[in-house]
Structure formats: structure tokens, C-alpha cells
Amino acid sequence: MGVVVGRKGHTDALKILLAAALSKKNIEFVENNVFPFGAVLEVTDQNTSFRLPANSAVLYLLQSPGQIQDPEVEKWLEWEATELQPVLVPYLVSLAGGRKDKTLEETLCSLLTKLSSSGILTSKEVTAATVVMFSALHPLTCEAAGSFLKTQHSHILQFLTTLGEVTHFKNIVTSWKSESGLLKTLENTTSQPWNPIHNTMALLKVSDVSPSHAAISPEQNKPVRAAVTEAQLKAAQVSWKQSVSSITLPKVVAHPSLPVKGETNILITSALPYVNNVPHLGNIIGCVLSADCFARFARLRGDNVLYVCGTDEYGTATETKAIAEGLTPQQICDKYHNIHSNVYKWFNISFNDFGRTTTEQQTKVTHEIYHDLENNGLITEDAVEQQYCEKCKRFLADRFVEGGCPHPGCGYPDARGDQCDGCSKLVNAMELVEPRCKLCSSTPIIRSSTHLFLNLPLIEPKLKAWLATSSPQWTSNAQVICESWLRDGLKSRCITRDLKWGTPVPKEGFEDKVFYVWFDAPIGYISITAGYTDQWKQWWQNPEQIQYYEFMAKDNVPFHSVVFPSCQLGTDKPWTKVTHLVATEYLNYEDGKFSKSRGVGVFGDQVMETGIPSDVWRFYLLYVRPEAQDTSFSWVDLQTKNNSELLNNLGNFIHRALSFVFKFFNGKIPEDKLNRSDYQVVAAVNQELSHYTTALANNHQRDGLRTVLAITRLGNQYIQENEPYKLVKPGRSVEEQERGATVTAVAANIVALVSIILEPYMPDTTVRIKDLLGDLPCLHQLPRSFNRFLPPGHVIKEPHPLIKPIEDDLIQRLSSQFGGQQPNPQKKPVDPVEITQLQSKVEEQANNVRKLKEGGTAGKEKIADEVKVLLKLKAELAAVQGVDPSVGGKDKKKAKKGGGGGKGKENASKMDATSASPAATPASSLPVNEEEANRLQAQVTQQGDKVRAVKTRGNASKEEVNAEVAILLDLKKQLAVAQGLDPNTLTGKEKKKKK
Amino acid sequence: MDNKVLGDIGQYLAIKKVKITMEDKKVVTDVGGKKCIGFVSGVLNLVRSQPQHQALEGSTVLQKSLTHHWLTYCTTHLFHCPTHEALTTCLQYLEQELKNRAYLCGYQLTIADVAVYLALHPFIFTWSYMKKEQYQNISRWCKTVQGDARLGKTHKAIHFSRSQLYCGSGRTH
């Protein structure tokens, strides 16, 4: 039923045992220390175990369900715990010590008198209070207490004796008493005597000087060195003395990078980012940065590495964006490719090549693969019935068709072709009731279009056989995702689309079709390599010699684990297939999602403007790399990590160590004479180094970073313990000076090691450290163990601080600039009444404005004034809703950019090297109706506010929210039409693309 | 501190006629004429005076006993820490106990959670992310409890971050 755990001799144990006996419940006893209690009752309820200390346990055992608690009993239980025990226990302890405490005895007396006169002891019924009092007071009957009770509190003695005769009590007490040393037990298990004078709240004013409050990690105060074995110690001695010249000099990095037979050759790709979207921090850590960390590590290791990536440029979104911006798709791609390229350059991503998918090689390789698949009978043709809009002259993809929801009972009129917002069920576009084209609202016709299909089921056996050899090396999330696809059964996949912007299909009758982007995008890896070197087949058709690592976020796993390898397998050519698929989870922004449209989150182009160096960003992103689960970017966290780990730990150590050399030894590494404790440090560093190597080899990049910080921590503690700055002072003995020199030399060499292993994380910083150290060849490759890289006499430069602190005001500014979703505690609870009032005012004023504008007779100034009033009201409304009022304005800006006027934004025109004139009339044939556009714009903004209000209210039903959203989308569509825009640009908004 | 937390609890339960006084260094709670001496009794008194809040005392015998335990712990240990070390000891005990449950007494919010939350809120509010991660279970518990509507009105929500500062590989040096 339960287990009593504690010290058997303690009164707490007696309490519980008695209660158990009385309630006829079976309990065991286990002897153990349960500080701060003498004994607890362990109870398990539905697989959760709870521990009840004595008084509460007694209550529990003696209570029957449904029985009402007796406040008297509770009162005395509390009295016993808060008043009696704090006096009784020290008194008993004093008795045990042989010197009775008189003051305590007096206090105890008055307490006991109170107890006697209360009548609780004379009650007929045995209650929890009885048991507790009996047990608590029982020790006073021991010999050491003498005649205390007899003379002064005979009532209590009587109580104890009488009760002691009752069967249950007698048995328990006898067995309990037979355990020795009651008083000793009390002595050992009591915690600090309770005193009501102390108020915990007072501690708020007193600063906690305990280490956990300081900006250093809690681990920094634990003794850092784990036990080092003798073998490790010997190994340390060998490795330290190992002459640096015996280490082979690093190979010259070949260009182009090609595999060498017999050596380790590593091919690395990072999922091609879609050209249209500016990458955000989540994209960056998920793909290119993770891959870069590994690529740099592999190069340090001496492997032959090829790291390629590029922008994925074909597809619908580029097409529509091009129309919107009045450029050709090629020009759009050029523009955005540069944005991507610059972002990654800033982050120091060490691609061997960063290319594009819109190249001749791409078409060539895709065609080759396609023909191979065709020749092997893996391509089938099939007619697919799709909706075609005659007005827009295009086949409509699912999300561009709207209509009535086909699900019974829903009837939502604006369901989309893939999902209904009304009932949230998946929809088949063909099943929509009265479908209409999202762009022009005309009814689409069903047209048959022939497409090509890749027969995955035929390839499935080969795929499964190959997966068995490869997938065990993947990250577990990738394995799981791949498995679930296979479990669901593979079906033939359509690999062509009716689009213009894409890789053409080399088959008669398919001239107006292109390959589906997910078919040809992975082929991009190959074609980009082909653009880099014509020896590309040495990498891509050389599976025996190559290890191929793919880096991506988990949403790309299906295509890289099933579709692409199937294509490769289907051709029967010896393609290099992925051996290690490394997939990350998602990075959130302050516990929410990144969103460009709402200005939430930091995007690649913005990062460069923050004033925080790229190395710090790399460090932080790799620190919170979402390996096993989603993680979250936090500004405060970034600051904390920078200031504590980078500055106080790493930066501080490097600066100190090198300063000692510079100040005390004229910038020359001194002679060293290591003793046993120094070798222990060397051995500990060796341990960390081997952890580092294993971690990074397995892409546990966070762990790897942790080992680097552990090494600098070791360094810091080493300096702290030995205090070389004291030992080298003039006037010290020769031995001490030698010690000081040794410690300095070892510390400086630790810095040298750090300058090597930090490189995959913070390349710029390591360049600077190596420069300070007087760059040596041995600093450019990963050592197997901690060697003496810097020999005595080696000259270093004057060190300067490498890391700057990040101040609060910077973080606060950046945090609000990027719309961080930090909870605002000062926010008033949203008042719906006020909102409705303001909303109606806004609507009224909006109508006013509209009337004035449509009336055509009002003067410009009048209109401007009324508009001002309207905007003010809107700001008020937004403030009451707790929403950022500036968000609504962005829609206006967007509209202006694409619509009639050609005043493109400053930024746009800077990047716009190739576009001749700013975006004038878009290529659409729809007329621009400015008046209508303005009217609709106002409505859109208003509806947008409404939607936001409904959402923030928090208690609106999903239907309500979706209904409002639908109205908003409809208005936006109308607005787009009025502006002569292709609505696809606005609808393709910010679905977070995680490539 | 007993009287402060009692007052806060009275506010939490929205009890209008409650008088809290100190007599003889002990806190006396008077609810509609019914007097109680002591913190534990006082809290239980408050809760029981509001039939709609009965569940806050605990639904099962075990829960009731656990609530009783925690309230006792408050007044014997938590509220009277003379030093930060003592408070740290209490926090460690809490941290350990919260390992296997959502609330102090299991899977339901009780007045014990409210009391401990009211007492610790001013402290946790000042904690750095590092400290919050040190006390992972307390942080998780605090985040859960502060979701309570009534507490949310009177107490600022504390921000907890899910991204770990240190990988939980538990490797010690």
C-alpha cells in the first residue's frame, strides 16, 4: 500500500507506523535519509509516486474518503509542527548531549501546559492529533528526560502511559523502541530550527552572492577535472612533448576540390534555398550553417571536401513574382540570388561553389537522367484532368481554385482547392461546388493535360535495399519520416507541370510543359557541381570513394530520402547517393514563428545591420541548433550567451593567457617544466578534444561547441588555481618563477588549440587569434591530441580583446525592432466593448472618407484631414487591441509598389542592377482602377484590423475567425485586381518556407 | 510572510470579508466570524468558506494530504528562510518533488500551488535564464501555474525559454 522511508528511530517514523497500524494498512519500512524529514510515506497513485511527511501522512492514513476534516485536528497538527517541534527537538538534543537546556525547557513547559489545558489529549477518540502528539512527546519518557514529565506535566505522562497500553500503540512502540539511539537519530536528522522571525521575502533585498546568480555557468564552480587515469596521464606526457614538426603539414587545398582515391572524400550539400524568399535565421541554421560547420571540421581533419549549394530558381512563385515586379523571371532570379549569396558570404559560409539551378548544365543533366529513367521503363504518361482558366490561359494549381466546400454540412462558399477554411478538411479541387478561378473569378473548365509520371513502386525494392545500407547513419528524425512514407506505400509521382519557367521536358508533345521543381531541384546539386568542375563525375558517380552528407530541415526529408535516390537508382548509373542525411528540427523566433509579412523575426539581410558580428551569430545559432527538438531564438538569450560564455569564459581566457605571455615574458613563450598536476590538465584537455572530434564527426554540433567551451573553462580554472601572475613577480623564488612560466606556457598552448577547434564555429575570430599567435602551419589542422604547438621562444603579438559585450539597450532596441513576441506584462486585458465602440467609429469615419472621395466635390485638403482622423482612430483601435498599429500600413506600401506609380523603394532599386526602368505598368492586361483601389485598400486595412481583433480576443470560434479571414482574402483579391496585380503575389504570402 | 501570502490567497479566492491579524507572532484568519490560528488552518479555512473552490483543497484523500503537507512546508520552511542557502535548500526540495508531476499535488491545481506560487513569484521573476534552467521542474511548474486566469490578472507572467542553455547530456567534468 505504501512504503515508509526514513530513519526508523525518528518520531516521524513512529507517527506513520502508528497511523498505519491503526488504519490497518500494510506498509513496509525502508531505512534511508530523507532530509529534511525524519521519515516520509511513499504512496503511488496512477504511476506517480508522492512522498508525505509525517503529519500529513498520518492525516492521509487515518482519513476515510468522504470524511470531513476536523479543523481542531488540523490546528493542533500545525501547532505541533510549527511550535512544538522547534522547541522540543533541540531540547531533546540537548538532553542527549548531557546538558539540558534550561531556556528551552521553560518554553517547552509553557507549550505543554497549553497542550494539557486544551483537552485534545483527553478526547476519547483517537485522531490524527492524538497519534502525532503521542509520537512527538513519547521521547520525553526516555531515561534522559528524567522526571520532567512526572513532576511538571503529569497529565501528559498519564496520556502517554494510558495510550501506550492500547494494543496497537504497545506493539508499535515496543518494536520501534528496540531500535537504538532515538535521541541520536533526532540529532542527525533535524534541519535548522524554524524561527518565525525570518521572513523569506527579506531575501529579495539581499543580493544572492552564491555563484548561480553571477553571469557564469553553474558548471564553472564545480571542480572541473574528472578523474584522469594513469594511462591518460602517460598519454598526455607523450602528446605534449610531441614535436610539432613531426606533424605533417596541412595539404594545400586544391582548386577545384576533387576526391583522391584512398583518402577520405566528403561531398556536402545543403538544401537549395528557394530563390524568392530571403532566408531567415531558421533557414540559415537548418541548412547552410550546419553544413558549413561540418565542412570546416572535415577540412580541418584533412579530408577532401566539396561543399556545394545554390538557389533553387524554377517554379510558379518566381513566375508570378516576376510579373508583379515587372521583370523577367531570369532578372528576378539574378536579383534574389545575389541577396542570398551576400547573406551567406557575410555568414562566412565556406561553399566551394554557390550556384543556381537555371543553367544549361541543369537542363543537360536533367535530360540525361530523364532519358535513363525512360529507357528503363520507369516513366509513364497519363492524362490528368485539371482545371484550366480560359481567361487567364493557365492551368490552375490547387490553391488557385476556390468554390463551395464539398463536405456535407459545411457549405463554406470560399473553400480553396486544397483545404477548406470553413471546416478545415482537405479538399480535392475538382470537387468544389461552382469553382472559380482565384484570379479572375471565371469558371474554369476541365481540361485534360498529359503528364509524365515516375513509377516509384517499380523502384521501391531497389530503394528499400539501398536504404538499409544508408539510413542507419541518418539523424533519427530523417529515418522516421522516410519510414512513414514507405509505410504509406509509394505511388507514381507526377514529375511535370504546365508552366513556362522551368526545365523543359525533352519529349514530343510536352513542349509547353516543364519538370516539376521537386524532380529537378535535387538534380541542381549535380548541375551546380558540373558548373564548378567538368570532373564532376568524380564526385557524383563514384559511390565507393565518396561519403555524401546532405543537410536540410526536416520538411525536405521525403524528397531527399525517397524521390531523389529513387531517380538515381532508377537510372542504373553508379550515382553517389546520400550516406548521411542530417535533418534539423525548427528554429522558432521567441517561441513563435518567423514571418516576413508581419515583420516578426530576423532575416538574413537584416542580420547584417544589427551591429552584432557574424561570428557571434554563428556561435549562438549553432549553440541553439535544433537537433533533437525545436528550439527558440531569444534576444536575451543571445546577449546572455555572448556575455557569459563568449566574453567571460572564452574571450576572457584567451586574453588573460596571452596577456601573461606578453606582459611577463616579453611576448615570448617561456620554458616549461610540467609537473603531474599540469599533465592532469593536459589529459583533461585531451579528453575534451576527443569528445569534440567524435561529436562533430557525428554532427552533434552543439556538443562539439560545448567541449570547446569546456576547454576554455579548464584553462580559466587552471590559471585561477595556479595564479601565475603572482608567481612571476620579482622577488619570488626560482621554483615559483618556473611554475609561473610553465603555467603561462601551457595556458598559451591551450589558446593555440582553441584557435584550431573553434574554427568551424567562429572562423573570423580564429583568424584573429592565429594572427595574435603568429600564425603557424600546425594551427591549420586538427590534432589528435593536445600538443605543444607554441614552442619556447616563439613570439606572439600583443593581445587585444576579441569579444565585445552586448549591452541591454541594444538588445531591447533590436528586440522591439524585429517584433519579438516577448510577453508584455503591462498590457491591459483587452476590452471588447471598447474595441467594438472604436471599430464602429472607425467604420463610420471610413465611410465618411469614402463618401468624400467618391463624391468628387470635396477638396483635397478636406479629404486629407478626414483621412488623418481615420488613421488616428485606427491607431487608437490598434492600441486598445494591443496590436502594433504600423502593421496595417505595410499593405499600403505593398500596393503602391506594384500598382500604378513607379516609385520603387530605395533598396529595391539598389539591388536592381539589371532592370532598366523602375516597375512601371505591370505586364498584366487588367486595367488599373485607382479610385476603386483606394476604396478597397481602406476596406482591406479595416478588415485586417477586424481579423486581428477577433484573433487576439482569444475566445472566438474557429469558424468566426475563418469567416473573417475569408472576407479579408476576398477583399485583398479584389484590391489586387483593381491595382492591376496578379493576386497570386499576395496570396503566396508568408508560408514559412523552410528550405 | 504568512500573513502576506494569506492576504494574497484571500484576494485570489475573491473573498470579501476576511481579516488577517497577527497575535503573538501567529497569524489569525477571520472569515465571516470563523477564526483560525496558524497558516495552514487559515488557508484551509479560506478555501472551505467558498464552496465553489472546494476542489482547491484536493479531490482525493491523497491530494488533500498533499495539500496539507505543502501548506505545512510553507510555514515551517519556505516562508522563514534566514539565508539564501536555506532558500536554495527549499528550492532544491521543490525541484526534486516536482520531477514527476504537473502540480504539487498531482495533476490538479490546488491551493498549495497557489500559495507556493505567490510566495516564490517575486523571486522567480528575477531569475536569469540560467537559473530557470537549473530549476527546470520549478520553471515548468511555474509556467503551468501562471496560466491560471486569476493569477494572471494579479501577477506578471514570467517568461520561460524552451531552448536549453546547456545540452542535457548530463556529462559532468
UniProtKB/TrEMBL annotation, chain A:
Keyword Transferase: no
GO MF annotation terms: ATP binding; methionine-tRNA ligase activity
Alphabetically ordered keywords of this record: Aminoacyl-tRNA synthetase, ATP-binding, Cytoplasm, Ligase, Nucleotide-binding, Protein biosynthesis
Domain of life: Eukaryota
Annotated GO CC locations: aminoacyl-tRNA synthetase multienzyme complex; cytosol
PROSITE patterns referenced in this protein's UniProt entry, alphabetically: AA_TRNA_LIGASE_I, WHEP_TRS_2
Localization (cell): Cytoplasm
Enzyme Commission number(s) of this protein: 6.1.1.10
Keyword Protein biosynthesis: yes
InterPro entries in the record: aa-tRNA-synth_I_CS, Anticodon_Met, Met-tRNA_ligase_1, Met-tRNA_synth, Methionyl/Leucyl_tRNA_Synth, MetRS_core, MetRS_Zn, Rossmann-like_a/b/a_fold
Segments of skewed composition (Low complexity): 913-925
Positions of region (Disordered): 884-956
Family according to the record: Belongs to the class-I aminoacyl-tRNA synthetase family.
Entries under NCBIfam families matching the protein: metG (TIGR00398)
HAMAP family xrefs: Met_tRNA_synth_type1
Protein name: Methionine--tRNA ligase, cytoplasmic
Automatic annotation (TrEMBL), chain B:
Source organism, top-level taxon: Eukaryota
Domain GST C-terminal residues, every copy: 45-165
GO CC terms of this entry: aminoacyl-tRNA synthetase multienzyme complex; cytoplasm; nucleus
Record-level GO BP terms: positive regulation of DNA damage response, signal transduction by p53 class mediator
Protein's recorded name: GST C-terminal domain-containing protein
Naturally occurring in which organism (per UniProt): Petrolisthes manimaculis
